[in-house]
């Protein structure tokens, strides 16, 4: 599986500036109460995130389960509403759009789900699954619609005969291709890929990653690639953002993150990647304890209870995400951006 090339807008004339910008996004969910008459508890799944995704690039979003990655992806797509903050897509604030304008904008932004077994309706034929968006947005009818479905399936490596079959008749990799075709059928510009290969065998993962890279070049797509597997993220991403307990703790180009990680959490994640080179000896960084409860996050730096480098200030003052050389941003008192 080849590595993604370093993102260079000069090689993609259509890629200019930030296509997506999230500003101070916060999303809280109810989590019960402290007692019969106690105060309501909330979980801050996303806690004040500001993030840009440039047109034409793939931004990899990495973090442990429960870190808020999928919630952030759904906030950006406006599938769920934030408690505060806003999302700017191609210069337009999604919150300011009318219902009709938002409906039209949804063509531009699509989601590919993690589980190819659960994300496709087992009672629908592939023709209906891929054609549903075309119908909703009134993009084509009759033979034109049939041709569009067939050509979209062909783009993801599926024959036209697949149109009359049901999801259970396909393998996991084929189902994920159908899920990608469903997203592409309405000609989007931006895809949120929510762990799209985590449920697949390793050999199939490589095929899907290669397909996504090819589609990005052919269709001028921009990706937010959500994952917990840093090996997969390395292969497809141009930049990487590391998320911990609802916050971004580090973001930089892929090469910077993998060769010069600054945040202790990023270093621990990278140390856990198995090496395929026998002589390479990377010391595994074992983090003590568990991820703190998002219902009652630690004061100061949220990572300090598990950080081997934590100082007194880490326990009381929350570090801000500060950019250094070539945009390498880190939220850490001990290892700030260079």
List keywords for this structure.
single chain; 338 residues; alpha/beta; eight-stranded mixed beta sheet; four-stranded antiparallel beta sheet; 9 helices; 12 strands; globular
Number of strands: 12
Low-pLDDT parts are none
Mean pLDDT, to the nearest integer, reads 90
Oligomer: single chain
Spatially, the strands of the biggest sheet line up as 6-7-8-3-9-10-12-11
Largest sheet: 8 strands, mixed
Radius of gyration over all CA atoms, rounded? 21 Å
Describe this structure in words.
- With 338 residues, the chain is of the alpha/beta class.
- Helix content is 27%, strand content 22%.
- It has helices at residues 69-76, 99-105, 126-136, 142-155, 172-184, 202-219, 230-236, 254-259, 264-271; strands at residues 18-33, 40-54, 58-62, 84-89, 92-93, 109-112, 190-194, 222-227, 239-244, 247-253, 322-323, 329-330.
- An eight-stranded mixed beta sheet has the order 6-7-8-3-9-10-12-11, with helices on both faces. A four-stranded antiparallel beta sheet has the order 2-1-4-5.
- It is globular, with a radius of gyration of 21 Å.
- The model has no long low-confidence stretch (mean pLDDT 90).
């Amino acid at each position: 599986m080849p590595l993604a090339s370093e993102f260079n807008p000069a090689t993609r004339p259509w890629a200019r500036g930030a296509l997506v910008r999230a500003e101070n996004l916060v999303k809280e969910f109810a989590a019960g109460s402290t007692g019969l008459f106690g105060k309501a508890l909330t979980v801050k799944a996303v806690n004040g995130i500001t993030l840009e995704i440039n047109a034409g690039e793939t931004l990899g979003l990495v973090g442990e389960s429960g870190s808020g990655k999928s919630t952030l992806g759904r906030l950006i797509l406006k599938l769920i509403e934030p408690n505060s903050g806003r999302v700017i897509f191609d210069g337009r604030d999604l919150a300011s759009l009318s219902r009709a304008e938002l409906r039209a904008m949804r063509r531009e932004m699509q989601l590919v789900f993690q589980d190819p077994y659960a994300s496709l309706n087992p009672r629908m034929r592939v023709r209906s699954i891929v054609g549903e968006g075309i119908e909703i947005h009134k993009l084509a009818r009759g033979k034109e619609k049939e041709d569009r479905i067939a050509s979209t399936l062909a783009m993801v490596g599926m024959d036209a005969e697949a149109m009359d079959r049901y999801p259970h008749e396909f393998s996991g990799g084929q189902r994920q291709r159908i899920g990608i075709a469903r997203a592409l059928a309405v000609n989007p510009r931006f895809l949120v890929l929510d762990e799209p290969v985590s449920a697949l065998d390793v050999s199939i993962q490589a095929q899907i990653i290669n397909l996504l890279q090819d589609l990005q070049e052919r269709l001028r797509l921009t990706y937010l690639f959500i994952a917990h597997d840093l090996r997969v993220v390395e292969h497809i991403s141009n930049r990487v953002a590391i998320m911990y307990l609802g916050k971004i703790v580090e973001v930089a180009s892929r090469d910077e993150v993998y060769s010069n990680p600054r945040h202790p959490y990023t270093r621990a994640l990278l140390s856990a990647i198995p090496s395929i080179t026998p002589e390479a000896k990377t010391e595994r960084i074992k983090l003590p304890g568990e991820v703190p409860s998002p219902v009652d996050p630690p004061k100061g730096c949220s990572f300090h209870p598990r950080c081997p480098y934590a100082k007194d200030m880490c326990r009381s003052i929350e570090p801000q995400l500060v950019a250094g050389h070539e945009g390498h941003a880190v939220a850490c008192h001990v290892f700030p951006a260079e």
